[in-house]
């Protein structure tokens, strides 16, 4: 879809879309790092805990933060996306901690 940014009719649309695209662009970094950490854990033969952490992050962090930021607080679309992308950030943090702990254990074996 092409949007002419010089057309004055699209000014409101651009005001809405540009902040959302900024959030999405930043969150893709965290999502890529989260997938890299997940791959490292798979390499360490750890699959059960990452799956549980993923479920917790999707249901516990993702849905709750989406609801609170997007609907209860009433901040709208950008905050809904921020809430959605808190999930990979939460999961990344815990997956990296898990990988660090497992790599310390496996280096001592």
Automatic annotation (TrEMBL):
Keyword Membrane assigned: yes
Parts of the chain that traverse the membrane: 12-30, 67-86
Record bears the keyword Membrane: yes
Superkingdom of origin: Bacteria
Keywords, ordered alphabetically: Membrane, Transmembrane, Transmembrane helix
Protein name: MATE family efflux transporter
Organism: Chroogloeocystis siderophila 5.2 s.c.1
